[in-house]
Amino acid sequence: MRRLQRLSSCSVLALFLASPPALADLTAPQVWDGIESALQGFGYSVTATETPTGDGLDVTDVTMRFDAPEDNATVEISIESIDLVENGDGSVSMTFPASMPITIDAAPEGEDAVTMVLDYGNSGLELVVSGAPGNMTYTYSADTLSVALADMQINGAPVSREEARFDFVLEDVAGSTVAVTTAGTSITQSVEASAARYDFAFNDPESDDAALVSGSMEGLFIISATVLPEGFDANDPQSLAAGGFSAEGSMGYTGGEMQFAATEPAGTTSGTTRSGSVRLDFAMDDAALRYEVKATDQAVSLSGPEMPLPVDVRMAESAFRITAPIAKAEEPQDMAFGLTLGGFEMSDLLWNVFDPGAALPRDPATIAMDLSGQVTPFFNLFDPDQMAQLDATGGSPGELNALTLNNLTIEAAGAKLGGSGAFTFDNDDLQTFGGFPRPNGEINVTLDGANTLIDKLIAMGLLTSEDAMGARMMMSMFAVPGDGPDSLKSTLTINDQGHVLANGMRIQ
Q: Are 275 and 256 in contact (CB under 8 A)?
């Protein structure tokens, strides 16, 4: 979270804030006071020299500093001058230098001390502030915004650009942010860029190890809204649990590609990746965390000296989502988990390793799971004292109250497994299931194409007839014929007495 706050606050500086223009005229000192307030809300200290001019304000020798004591690290942004000019329409224009250094010093305990200077550059940056004190709109655009590694030292020894480099460029940037600084700080941001390019490399002259990563993305966007209550301390994790904090947003791009290579004594491993759309949605407040990421049309190609043959795989869609409570609660709270790996395909070269005769269907494979439920947390995950107590006592972080399997799908090699069901859990009964709360509910399972798949595995020599017989006996014990050929189904029930039944027949 602190990394997100640091990045967000940098954008507060360079790409600033947006909402409908107000009728009041803004002055340059009011705009600068608003920027200082927003940065301080993110945990930065700000020093500068302010000089009034005939049409506004010159702010020089600007230093913005963020301290992270737990990592023994600091982030310092230096700006030679910022010109604030009052326009005739009640707005204020801001002009920044073409280059602004960001210095990062980090010396975590037991690790190397690292100092980096990043050159934050811009071309064609235009920023106009409108609105009123306490509710300002920052609208901006730029031909390019860039970050480049300008200098690096490890334990005081300089690292040349031939040994390490990093470059990141955004093109055709446009955005706006709204900063409301009454009763805390509220920041709403929307940013778009037509493309991004990045290039990272390092080369260790002592070991000859080296790595190179480069790529691009198109159609980038970020939408976010953050609320920081009064008294919020970015260095104190308990501030997240104190109430009033919230953050939500979305980010992603419409297409991307990457090339990479890593050289070791054994040789060079290299590959490429590409993807269609990628989208991440997140939300967090003092009670719960929600996170979801989706991607389409992914592909990976990989080859190297330790691989017997090149890897070439594709996936039509992938997704991951989680909802989890983070605050101590007396009543059950919602939770959820989802995973999708859909339309997975691999090259015929990989298939032929274990199926040279193409006996198995090579249709795209899918694994998908969708779970929801309720849990009662006993601790606040952002309270260090409570978490230390949990570690020391080995206690339970909470209890499971209910779980629903909304969907389970596993589809591969011509067979398909499906399932759904729901259970509640009695946490007062920890004896019936050996320390686990007693469940009550049922799950329905279907299995299609299993016998056909078993026959093909026997013919390929991957499964013996004896093993196949055991598998078929197990299926006959727990399943009954389904609705079609080579189809099975089963209903597994756990009743309120703790009895386990398969299709009405008690098995425990």
A: yes
* Dihedrals phi, psi of 204, to nearest 5 degrees: -90, 110
Token pair belonging to 416: 């398909």
Is the distance from CB of 150 to CB of 181 less than 8 angstroms?
Answer: no
Q: Residue type at 197?
A: R
Q: Which residue is listed with tokens 């979305």?
A: 250
Retrieve residue 427's tokens: 């946490």
Mean pLDDT of the chain: 90
392 CA to centre of own chain: 30
What pLDDT does residue 19 have? 35
| Amino acid residing at 151 | D
Q: Which helix (H) or strand (E) holds 450?
A: helix 450-460
Contact assessment for residue 25 and residue 90, using Cβ atoms and an 8 Å cutoff: yes
pLDDT digits (tens, 9 = 90+) for 336-395: 999 999 999 999 999 998 889 899 999 999 999 999 999 999 988 777 777 787 887 877
Return the beta strands (E) in 87-203 as ranges. 92-95, 99-106, 114-123, 126-132, 135-154, 157-158, 164-180, 185-203
In the structure encoding, which two tokens stand for residue 231, read together? 């008294």
- Alpha-carbon distance of 460 to 90, in angstroms, equals 79
At a CB cut-off of 8 Å and minimum separation 6, what does 365 contact? 341, 343, 344, 345, 411, 412, 413
Res 289 pLDDT > 60: yes
Interatomic CA distance for residues 63 and 162, integer angstroms: 30
Closest CA to 160 of 201, 207, 215, 129: 201
Instruction: Write out the H or E segment, with its range, that includes residue 367.
Output: strand 365-377
Q: How far apart are CA 117 and CA 152, in angstroms?
A: 6
CA dihedral 29, 34, 39, 42 (to 10 degrees): 160
Report the alpha-carbon distance of residue 224 to residue 175 in Å, rounded: 12
Is residue 257 within 8 Å of 271, Cβ to Cβ? no
CA dihedral (445, 448, 449, 451) in degrees, to 10, reads 50
Percent of the chain at pLDDT > 90 equals: 69
Which tokens go with 146?
């860039």
Q: Where are the alpha helices (DSSP H) in 42-175?
A: none
